[in-house]
């Protein structure tokens, strides 16, 4: 159930910039519809798996994104009725019910009805077992993991590695403000190679994600990232 990045790269109309914009829209829709974070991660996985196997026309990008979010919500039992979801989801604006239904069938057939996957949320919870359960740490990890959804270089990266790199980065950021920021001594080579890439995307997040995680209910973690690159750049440069 891991997407094939090389398959998506062959898309003639659905380019990486299109995907970036669509994932940001999915994040906004997930937030507006008050869906769980796991719904967003599953929706992006569905989107990537489908687009690695089938041609996506530019005019169908939002429709596909909306259907991916709808399927994820159904699978995780996160919506009351499909009709209310369709009415409230901005991604379905301009599409008829038959268009949505047909795309839903096409996606399910393409994925052989395999919707679930090993989500990064589950691996995050495993990683947090070794830490004091601080909400800012969880929110920072979630912010980092959600940022990785936007960028093509992380499409085929295993969720377990992303979660491990997120906890390393988040613990340093949150620990810095608590006077406890220390690097783990058992960080693997694969995770070390991810750290500078995560540092890079933290420096220029999509505006919608920045504001989403700059809010009080998300512990204002986006605001805590300032100065992180200059502080850690010399540490990561050797990798």
Features:
single chain, 239 residues, mainly alpha, Cyclin A, domain 1, 2 domains, 62% helix, globular, cell division, cyclin, Cyclin_A/B-like, cyclin-dependent protein serine/threonine kinase regulator activity, cell cycle
| Beta-strand residue percentage | under 5%
Alpha plus pi helix count: 12
Q: What's the CATH class of the largest domain, please?
A: Mainly Alpha
Integer count of domains: 2
Ranges where pLDDT stays below 50 over 5 or more residues in a row are: 177-183, 233-239
Q: Terminal Cα separation, in Å?
A: 30 Å
CATH architecture of the largest domain: Orthogonal Bundle
Structural class by SSE content: mainly alpha
The averaged pLDDT comes out at: 86
CATH superfamily of the largest domain: Cyclin-like
Tell me the helix content.
55-70%
Q: How would you spell out the order of helices and strands?
A: HHHHHHHHHHHH
CATH structural fold name of the largest domain: Cyclin A, domain 1
Characterize the main sheet: none
Number of beta strands: 0
Radius of gyration: 18 Å
Which overall shape is indicated by the principal axes computed on the Cα atoms? globular
Characterization of the model:
This protein has 239 residues and is mostly helical. It folds into two domains: 107 residues, Cyclin A, domain 1 (Orthogonal Bundle), CATH 1.10.472; 117 residues, Cyclin-like (Cyclin A, domain 1, Orthogonal Bundle), CATH 1.10.472.10. The protein is 62% helix and 0% strand. The chain has twelve helices and no strands. The C terminus is likely disordered. Belongs to the cyclin family. GO terms for molecular function: cyclin-dependent protein serine/threonine kinase regulator activity. Pfam families: Cyclin_N.
């Amino acid at each position: 159930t891991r997407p094939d990045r090389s398959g998506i790269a062959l898309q003639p109309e659905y380019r990486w910039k299109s995907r970036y914009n669509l994932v940001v829209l999915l994040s906004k829709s997930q937030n507006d519809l008050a869906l769980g974070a796991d719904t967003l991660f599953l929706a992006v996985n569905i989107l990537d798996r489908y687009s690695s196997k089938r041609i996506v026309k530019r005019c169908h990008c939002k429709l596909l994104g909306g259907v991916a979010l709808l399927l994820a919500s159904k699978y995780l039992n996160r919506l009351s009725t499909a009709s209310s979801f369709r009415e409230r989801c901005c991604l379905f604006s301009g599409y008829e019910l038959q268009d949505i239904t047909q795309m839903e069938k096409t996606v399910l057939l393409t994925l052989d009805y395999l919707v679930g996957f090993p989500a990064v949320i589950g691996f995050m919870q495993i990683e947090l077992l070794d830490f004091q359960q601080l909400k800012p740490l969880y929110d920072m990890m979630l912010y980092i993991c959600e940022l990785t959804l936007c960028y093509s270089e992380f499409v085929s990266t295993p969720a377990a590695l992303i979660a491990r790199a997120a906890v390393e980065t988040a613990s340093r950021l949150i620990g810095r403000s608590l006077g406890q920021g220390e690097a783990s001594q058992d960080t693997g080579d694969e995770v070390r190679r991810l750290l500078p890439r995560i540092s890079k995307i933290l420096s220029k997040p999509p505006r919608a994600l920045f504001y989403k995680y700059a809010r009080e209910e998300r512990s204002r973690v986006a605001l805590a990232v300032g100065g992180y690159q200059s502080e850690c750049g010399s540490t990561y440069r050797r990798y």
